[in-house]
Specification:
heterodimer, A: 261 residues, mainly alpha, MetI-like fold, 2 strands, B: 289 residues, alpha/beta, Rossmann fold, 2 domains, four-stranded antiparallel sheet, 9 helices, 37% helix, globular
Chain lengths: 261, 289
Amino acid sequence: MNKFKLDWLILPLIGVAIILGVWAVSSATWAKDLPSPLKTWESSKPYILEPFAKRGEMDQGILRFTWYSLVLVAQGYALALIIGTPIGFCLGLSKAFTKTFDPIIQILRPVSPLAWLPLGLVLFLGTGKEAGTYGALFTIAICAMWPTVLNTAVGVRAVPQDYLNVGRVLKLSRWKTLTKILIPATLPYMFTGFRLSLGIAWLVIVAAEMLTGRPGVGGFLWQEYNALIYEHIILSIIIIGLVGFVLDRLMSLLERRFRTA
Amino acid sequence: MKPYLEISRLGKTYPTPSGAPAIIVEDFDLKISKGEFITLIGHSGCGKSTVLSMIAGLTDVTTGGIILSGKEVVGAGPDRGVVFQAPCLLPWLTAFENVMLGIDQVYYTADREERRQIAEYYLTVVGLADAMHQRPAELSQGMRQRCGIARAFALSPKMLLLDEPFGMLDSLTRYELQEVLLDLWQKDQKTALMVTHDVDEALFLSDRVVMMTNGPAATVGEILEVKFPRPRSRAQLLADPFYYELRAQLIGFLEERSHLRPLRSPATPPPQSAPPPRRRSFLSALASA
C-alpha cells in the first residue's frame, strides 16, 4: 500500500471509526437518549436518499433545506462584503476615520448573533411576514462583516510605500490609485477576510433559522428537537459541518488564486 | 548659462522624540545644466537618496528650494521620471502594462494605438521586446530594472532621477544596463541625476560627480568634472590613465575627506586640519581597478 492512500484514506477513516465507536458506546451506556449511529442512519435515510423531496413545509430533503439556508447566507454575505469592504478601506486610509469608528467597531464586534437577531426583527417589524427574513439578513451581515472590515484595513495599511510612490510620481488620480494600486495590493488580505466572513455567515444562519423558525438546516434542527426526533439533530449537525467545510475550501481556492496575482 | 535644475540651500530635518531635530541634509547647493548627467556619490546613509527623493517630490523639503526649468518643484509629478532601486513594478501588471500606466497619464490626448507604440518602443530599446507581456515575477532582476528604466523614459520627463538603480544587480548585468541607460539618455537628450555608491559607475556615466559629505547634516563636499568624450566605451575609459587619476580622487575623498564639511559654510565649525593625502589609496585604487 502506498503512503498516499494511508495518509488520505486509511487514517481519516480510522478517525471516523473511532468517533463512531465512542458515539455508539455513549448511546448504549451513559447517554440513553442519544440515538445510536445505526438508528440515526435509518431515521435519516429518507432525507438523504431523497435530498430534494418536499413533503411539507418542515419535512423536506436535507439538500433542499441546505439550499434554502445557502440562499439566505449568500444574500447576507453579499451584504456584509458590500458594506464591510468600503469601511475597511476607509479605516485603512484615514487615521481620523479609524479614531472615530474603531472604538465602536471593537465594541460591536464581539456581540453574539443571538443578541443581534431580536434587534433585527424589531427593525423590520413593519415588513410583517418578511420580518424574519430581513432580520436574519441583518444579523448575518452585521456579524459576518467584521473579518472583512479588519482584514481589508490591515491590507490597505500594508500596501508598500514603494507602490504608492509609483502612483505619486505618475500623478495618478485618486480613482486610478484606488483601482490600479490599492485594490490589487490589498486583494490577498481582502480574500482572507472574505473567507473568515463566510465561515461566520454560515454559523449565524443556523442560529437565525432556529430563532425565526424559517425552513432551512437550522430551522429543521430546532423543529426536530421539539418533535423529539433526535436522530435528525445529528443529521443536521453533520450536514452543517460538511457544508461549512466545503465553503471554506472553495474560498481558500479563490484566495490562493489571488495571492499569486 | 541659466541652470536647468537649481538646488539652493536645501535641507531636511526630522523631528525626534528627544526634541532636538535630526538634521539629515543641510545647505545643499547644486546647479545642473540641461542635458547633463550628474551622479551623486557618498557613503551609505549620508542622505544622498533623501536629496533625490526631495527633488522627486516624494519627501517634503524642510528648508531651501528646488527650481526645475524655471518652476519650483512642489510635490511629485511625471515631469521627473524616477527609477527606483527596487524597480517598484506593480506585480499584478505585465511589464507592458506597467509602462502603459505612466504613458496613459502623460499622453492622455494620444489615441490608444499611439500610446501602445510608445510603450513598445521603449520596452524594445531596453531589450524587453520578447518579454514585455510577462509579469515582474517572471522576469529576472535585471529585466525588471530594464522595465523600470523604460517606464521612466516613456514619460518623456524633463529630468531623470535614478536612485541606485543598479545596486541590486550583479556586475555583468550592471555593465549592460549602464550602457542601456547611457544609450537612451543620449538618444533622448535628457538631464539626469543619479545616486550611486559605485565609483566606476559614476565615472563611466557622468559629466560631473558630486561627492557628498557624511551625515548628519550632509552637504556637497567636492565636485569632480569627468571630461571623457562621448559616446564612451568602457574599454577606452579603462585604457586612459586619466581615468585612474579621477578614480583615485574619488576614492580619496570617500576614504579621507568625506567626514569634513567644506570650509565655505559659515554655519558649521571649521573642520580640523585634513590629514595629508596618502599615496597608498592611489596605489590601492590602481591595484583594484
